[in-house]
Hints:
The complex is a heterodimer of chains A (102) and B (410).
Chain A: E1 4-8, E2 12-17, E3 24-27, E4 32-37, E5 43-48, E6 52-57, E7 62-67, E8 73-78, E9 90-94, E10 98-101
Antiparallel strand pairs in A: 1-2, 2-3, 4-5, 5-6, 6-7, 8-9, 9-10
Chain B: E1 3-6, E2 11-16, E3 22-27, E4 31-36, E5 41-47, E6 52-57, E7 64-68, E8 73-76, E9 84-87, E10 90-95, E11 99-104, E12 109-114, E13 121-125, E14 128-132, E15 137-141, E16 153-158, E17 166-169, E18 173-177, E19 181-186, E20 191-196, E21 201-207, E22 215-220, E23 224-229, E24 236-240, E25 245-250, E26 256-261, E27 266-270, E28 276-280, E29 285-288, E30 295-300, E31 303-308, E32 314-317, E33 321-326, E34 329-334, E35 337-342, H1 346-354, H2 358-368, H3 371-383, H4 387-396, H5 400-409
Antiparallel strand pairs in B: 2-3, 3-4, 4-5, 6-7, 7-8, 9-10, 10-11, 11-12, 13-14, 14-15, 15-16, 17-18, 18-19, 19-20, 21-22, 22-23, 23-24, 25-26, 26-27, 27-28, 29-30, 30-31, 31-32, 33-34, 34-35
Helix pairs in contact in B: 1-2, 2-3, 3-4, 4-5
Amino acid sequence: MLQNLASCSAIDFGLWQADQPNVxxxxxxxxxxxxxxxxxxQVLAIGLINGVILMKDKTGVELYTINKSTxxxxxxAFCPYKFDSADNLLVAGSWDSKLSIY
Amino acid sequence: MGSDKDLxxxxxSISFFPSGEYMAIGGSDKKLTLWNKxxxxxxxVAEAKDWIWATAVNPVTKAIFAGTNGGNISMHNVDFLTxxxxxxxxxxYRELMTDVIIQHLVTETRVKIRCRDYIKKIAIYKxxxxxxxxxxxxxxxxxxxxxxxxxxxxxxxxxxxxxxNLLFVVSQHLILVFEKKIQLLSFSGTLEREWVLDSQIKYVxxxxxxxxxxxxxxxxxxxxxxxxxxxxxxPIPLVKQTTPIMVVDISADRQKVAVIxxxxxxxxxxxxxxxxxxxxxxxxxxxxxxxxxxxxxxxSKDTLFIKIREMPPSAQKLPGxxxxxxxxxxxxxxxxxxxxxxxxxxxxxxRFLEKKDFAMAYKIACIGVTEQDWRALGIExxxxxxxxxxxxxxxxxxxxxxxxxxxxxD
Lengths: 102, 410
């Protein structure tokens, strides 16, 4: 079990670690709407209201961004189990009625 | 890197099942829908009066919870039913809602067909397989010459949305079973024949026949058992009972029918004389041997019984249900898996040998007994001066000295 907690707000997100008194906060380019940890706890996906998905590692370093849509990414979820490939499966839904699978 | 899919509504919440195979989505369509991980719609779990803002799946019970804009929280239990089909030694079943696994029960080989859509029904017959998807029915075929061929190829497609209770396939037709009627459809999708029956249809099973003249057994709620040939508009009544019928099977030579009724009682009738041969209570499933007339297997309270003619049945502990019987092999459905079990024939064989019923003992021996049993049959037959049968038994085990002895004495 990893002792990491992520919190998201209208302007930023914070990464909390059980053994550290400080919270690592970072500004986001838009309002956050949803977030999910990958099943191994190494990757955090954050969905933004401007249609962008931010992928961060557990220390907050940006891995990549996905420009999913022009509408808000309202919900996203990692698949809890890896199947054929070694990659995580991320499912995201945005308010242009689109479901994307990565 | 990703794939997009148009949902037709705005999703508000996605929750995966703990296994990762399925996910529940709730949103502006006011429905709680079930999808697989590849984004294929499997069905609607519930409809709410307002937008669904939140969904969650219980990691233990797998119940799906949904919270709506109107302030309601609801809980839904989802059952994944088994969808399958069996024809003699071929068994096809649905896996993960979108794949078909076909299992050859004698060679124990299996193949998988990915349909990439929600599978509603599966039917299998000799060299055919039919899979019903929400918008169409796909018919697959294998080469008819090789009985062990498992290379299924798409053969025909019917783009029709059909809502039938049961689906069967034969060599050139589809059989659709509704509440009280049965329809025969050609592979191009045209209706060729229809039978309207006077009671609710409880059970249907296809029986082999020449192409375009196959038959089926039908059990009705009013207790009738009918035989229908697809080239004949008139059903043939076989037997009539007073209790609703659940399961029917017919013996290899079509001389005897076994029926299980609503109260789990098994009745075995002779078709010609309409005589009740025997009956048994608390029976869950029944199957006649496909290769030998008169040999019947049935499951009752986790025990498998095998009976031949008037002999008392031999019993063995076996969880699950017997669904097929071919030679010495029992096909048994245990939970969600189909198992092939070899049953020894020696005990029944010796019963007939003791009774000096050499012809029957020989028949059973042909299904599979040990070399010693063959020798015992040969010697017994020799003592009873049945030289022909003795010779045939010794030929089976290539015992030259005894064969010579038979020829000498004959």
